[in-house]
Write a structure and sequence with these properties.
This protein is of the alpha/beta class. The protein has 20 helices and 23 strands. Keywords: Glycosidase, Hydrolase, Signal.
Length: 758
């Protein structure tokens, strides 16, 4: 992050200009205050910082045992200080000059109360930070704790203008703070994934579960490998990079459901539970276990050094329901018991290979099925009603929560609806994502019904949005896992804005509010209809059925009659409420874009994130402009109909309407190109063929994930592309030319090509 730094040669001090930028709404009371440590995230367990301040300068050095010189904590400290123009040397002794002293000594930092009972694991992550004029000391029991102490210190340094005197003693509440990164329908470049992991580590996130689906080069299943995929060597490189930053790279593979990326291929059709549905494996088919055992083993062999693996039994709705499985399910004691049998078989195999296996303790697993699971597994989903039963069986527990669930453009951090509306994934829309996560984690921890060891913060990019939008939730949710005492959702969000974008950030909270509201409106501003463009869906969590998929559209533009230009349908495509909302949101959209551009000029380390937010604002803004324009186009058609007594005027009104449609297309195409230019800076191309491989474009028979509507990024404008403006254009063009010919006016022959976006 950028800040102006002046070196005063006569005293070698660093001076940061200005105070924190004022931030509106819920941030104002937190971010504008000058209280020491107001920008720290996670919030330390014990913090005694005074009002006294001192400065660091170029006469300081880093004092560390020579054995620490090449360790990540020291390298991170040096790099972080360079970002504020302070390049300090590392020496083996403290000496007489001011120093930042790094000490690793087992037993040097005692920890206090914690939810997690594995005190040894928490102790390894503990640190103490002492801040005195001329002497900063970071002490830890182990390298991991030292690294975390450095991150806290760097947050204080970057907050400026001076460091507070005092002391911080800190440790996590639970051993693991995991984020789930969804690369099912896109793949970041390796350099981007490393940036993401490094950034996660600065918030003391220590586990990174990545879902790749066909974006890994499986030797055991080459048919499923997509045009761009990580090699085993690259996966190991990423694992080693993560481990160096005290993050466990957690392989993620769905089984037995959510596997259309496998079962859509003819080679694996025989493994389907139901022949014409590509959603779920048959768990009783021996070939299913053989394939999954090979795939999991490849992920394990490519992630040597990792501790965990996630056996994602998510939404295995149909286990035991098909005739091929019913007899075995009945003999074992039900569908849940059959799923437990299958999971045990896989989990035991993974455990033999040295991994701790996480799973989702959810339907169709029941309370009576818990004892059929091996106690070495770890439950990733907290359920109050059966938490004690898992604990009794010796199964430890994570708390699962999400920074996003089904939102397709931007997470509902600050919802537009604030009363009783419930989101599609069941979360309370009234409070917003951060508050929802805090409530779920806090409620679980305070209940003390489980043997807790971690939290999992998920973001489901299979909804189509960019995962870079998840960081507010990732950082605050895992912060609640580190220490949820004396930290409110509003305070955590404010701390994030300052720590992530820097203390000079300008009103980023308002940007998030605007994007949250306008992304929500983006979804609700079009009508849902049975899709005439896609194959029917074949079921849901309750049952199997055949019914049309849902897609979005709007009422058609009015069409003038031939010869008379009469308009029979005078209904606007955009109803009055939506139109008024769109008009009122346009100035806020412009304000958000202005703020983002200003913050880009202030930022140093979050430029890409700001660009992604800028692309989201552009998507929302284009939708608002289109809604307003469609009604204006309707007005022009009506005005043409009313002006038939003056044929030249009538034709000019139709020309103006068509010109506005043409401008709409240009705006849509330029916005789409802008979004592509940003997203593909860090993403691999979304193409049908590359690297000798071909992507099989076939949708999931049960789950409707927006990215699978198209091969490329055009799923973002799927509804616009299917809005029938080409037909309207051609019909209006014919009416216009017929009318012009009747009145000896010039003819035109322009093509729209609405469905073409490049």
């Amino acid at each position: 992050m950028y800040r102006s730094i002046f070196l005063l040669s006569f005293c070698c001090l660093i001076i940061w200009p200005g105070a924190h930028a004022q931030v509106r709404s819920s941030q104002k009371s937190v971010a504008a205050e000058s209280q020491a440590g107001a920008g720290l995230l996670p919030l330390p367990q014990q913090m005694q910082l005074t009002a006294k301040r001192f400065s660091m300068g170029t006469n300081w050095h880093i004092a560390a045992d020579p054995a620490l010189a090449g360790e990540q904590a020291v390298m991170s400290l040096q790099q972080g200080l360079k970002e504020v123009n302070l390049a300090l040397n590392v020496t083996g002794a403290k000496g007489k000059s001011p120093a930042i002293q790094l000490i690793v000594q087992n037993g040097s930092v005692e920890i206090g109360a914690s939810v997690d009972t594995n005190r040894a694991a928490l102790t390894r992550q503990a640190y103490r930070l002492s801040l005195k004029p001329g002497q900063v000391t970071i002490t830890a029991n182990a390298q991991q704790g030292l690294y975390y102490g450095v991150q806290t210190f760097l947050q204080l340094v970057k907050a400026g203008p001076q460091l507070p005197e005092g002391e911080i003693t800190d440790w996590p509440n639970v051993e693991v703070r995991m984020i789930y990164w969804d690369d099912a329908h896109h793949l970041e470049k390796l350099t981007a994934l490393k940036r993401i992991i490094r950034q996660a580590s600065t918030y003391k996130i220590n586990a990174f579960s990545i879902k790749l689906e066909g974006h890994f080069e499986y030797k055991s299943a080459p048919a499923i490998v997509e045009p761009y995929a990580l090699t085993a060597k690259e996966y190991q490189e990423l694992t080693d990079f993560a481990k160096a930053h005290f993050i466990d790279l957690v392989p993620f593979l769905d089984a037995p459901a959510h596997v259309s990326f496998i079962l859509k291929h003819p080679e694996f059709r025989k493994l389907r539970l139901i022949d014409d549905i590509n959603y779920q494996f048959s768990v009783t088919n021996p070939a299913t276990f053989k394939l999954l055992d090979a795939m999991y083993s490849e992920l394990i062999n490519a992630s040597k050094g990792s501790k965990y693996i996630l056996l994602s039994n998510d939404e295995a709705y149909y286990t035991g329901k098909a005739p091929s499985e019913k007899a075995m399910a009945d003999s074992l004691g039900g569908n849940g018991r059959l799923l437990a049998w299958f999971m045990k078989k896989l989990a035991d195999r993974l455990h033999e290979q040295g991994r701790t296996v996480l799973f989702w303790g959810e339907f169709p697993l029941r309370k009576e099925d818990i004892t059929a699971l091996p106690s070495h597994m770890v439950n990733g989903v907290y359920n109050k009603s059966i938490a004690a039963d898992y604990k009794k069986h010796g199964i430890r527990q994570f708390v699962y929560t999400a920074t996003q669930g089904a939102e397709p453009i931007f997470p509902n951090y600050y919802p537009k609806h604030t009363k009783t509306a419930i989101m599609a994934d069941g979360s309370d829309r009234s409070s917003g994502r951060v508050a929802d996560m805090f409530r779920e984690i806090g409620t679980a921890f305070s209940g003390n019904l489980s043997s807790f060891m971690g939290v999992i913060i998920a973001g489901w990019a299979d909804a189509g949005l960019h995962p870079e939008t998840f960081w507010l939730g990732y950082a605050t949710g895992t912060a609640a896992g580190w220490n949820n005492k004396n930290l409110t959702p509003a305070n955590a969000s404010a701390r994030f804005m300052n720590s992530f974008y820097g203390p000079r950030q300008k009103d980023m909270d308002s940007v998030y509010r605007v994007l949250s509201e306008q992304a929500e409106f983006h979804t609700e501003s079009w009508d849902w209809i049975p899709s005439p463009w896609r194959a029917p869906i074949k079921g849901n969590s309750d049952s199997l059925f055949l019914q049309p998929e849902k897609d979005q559209t709007l009422p058609l533009l009015p069409l003038p009659a031939s010869s008379t230009l009469a308009v029979s349908n005078k209904t606007y495509p955009v109803n009055a409420k939506r139109f008024a909302t769109a008009q009122s949101m346009l100035p806020r959209n412009a304000y958000a874009l202005q703020l983002l551009r200003e913050n880009k000029s202030l930022a140093k380390t979050q430029l890409y994130n700001l660009e992604v937010l800028e692309s989201v604002a552009a998507i929302c803004g284009q939708n608002l402009r289109m809604l307003v324009a469609l009604n204006r186009i309707s007005d022009l058609v009506q005005e043409a109909s009313a002006a038939t007594a003056d044929p030249k005027l009538a034709v000019s009104k139709l020309d103006a309407a068509m010109e506005m449609v043409g401008k709409l297309k240009n705006q849509r195409d330029s916005t789409f190109a802008f979004v592509e230019s940003i997203w593909f800076k860090e993403w691999q191309p979304l193409v049908e063929k590359a690297n000798g491989r071909t992507f099989l474009h076939q949708v999931d028979d049960i789950k409707d994930h927006q990215p699978v509507r198209t091969i490329d990024l055009s799923y973002l404008i799927y509804r616009e592309l299917h809005y029938p403006l080409d037909q309207w254009w051609n019909d209006v063009l014919k009416v216009r030319n017929d009318f012009a010919q009747q009145h000896n006016l010039p003819l035109v022959n322009k093509q729209l090509e609405w469905a073409r976006y490049r």
